[in-house]
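User: I need a structural model of TauD/TfdA family dioxygenase from Streptomyces viridiviolaceus for a docking pre-check later this week. Nothing fancy, just the predicted structure tokens so I can convert them on my end. Input:
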Amino acid sequence: MSTSSLAAPLDVELRPDAPAVAHIDTPADVTSWTEQHREALRAQVTEHGALLVRGLGLRETDQVGAVFSRLTGGLMTERESFAPRQEFAPGLYSSTTWPANQPMCMHHELSYTLAAPGLMLFACLTAPDRGGATAVADAARILQALPTEPRERFAREGWLLTRSYTDEIGASLEESFGTGDRTEIERYCRANDIDFTWQPDGTLRTTQRRPAVVRHPVTGQDCWFNQIAFLNEWTLAPEVREYLVDLYGEDGLPFNTRFGDGSPIGEDTVRLLNETYEEHTRREPWQAGDLLLVDNIRTAHSREPFTGERQVLVGMAEPHRLADCDPTSEASQR
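Assistant: Understood. Predicted structure tokens for TauD/TfdA family dioxygenase:
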């Protein structure tokens, strides 16, 4: 074990296959402990990209909300969500609704928005029987590990996210935009550089182009930052993809990703991205009461398949404008 040398020392365990884990004795007052150790906790996140705090004993939603608020300057309201969440309090959500037997592969939360969260906060109230870890991967190492050709192309072109909002699959218009009013939705899309088309049946299709590589606003590292693999059709289970294509057609999938010039991303490229993520994945099984802090720019995260009940609460904070995290030409040439 290594021990932080900060004024409020933390007992931090470092293993190559897991995120940094701070082991603590359960405090009598969790909220006060969090406030007292805020700077030490945040310093560990800056140093390691993610920190799992074990021993807090988090058990209640209100308690989690109080802890999240002590660690941030305020929680974000999620916009452009791709799947439903339950909101317990402003900025305090359930984890994304997603089939338990299907993985949510590595991604950076809301990396397709113009202002993505810089910090993700997760709290486990109920641990699953098996699986279900929120694993992490270092985005700077992912970028360095990718072969030259796809790295250069994505750094040069960025990536496209296409979405078709339906009532059957994914988040509804109101869940994504906070309103079902067409005028307000159109205003949001124009303000956030999203191309949109209303279909004859009333559904909405959108396209947005975003950088695939950004510079970390604090460390200056170039980071692979996107949801190219996670939201691509080839990451879906084959039977799910076949069903969705039969139902909506190739161009009408609820979500899909493309190269920045609009051309399709092949199955081989998506497989390469997911294999590179897996080579750099660090995981630690959830225990009830755990807190996980993730630097959303530097660190990708996933949700692995699980069995049993799993309740993980989520908060997002400290938005960073992508325009202030310009991708660099050097990133594509390393």
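Before docking, keep this in mind: The chain has two domains: 2-138+283-333, 141-275.
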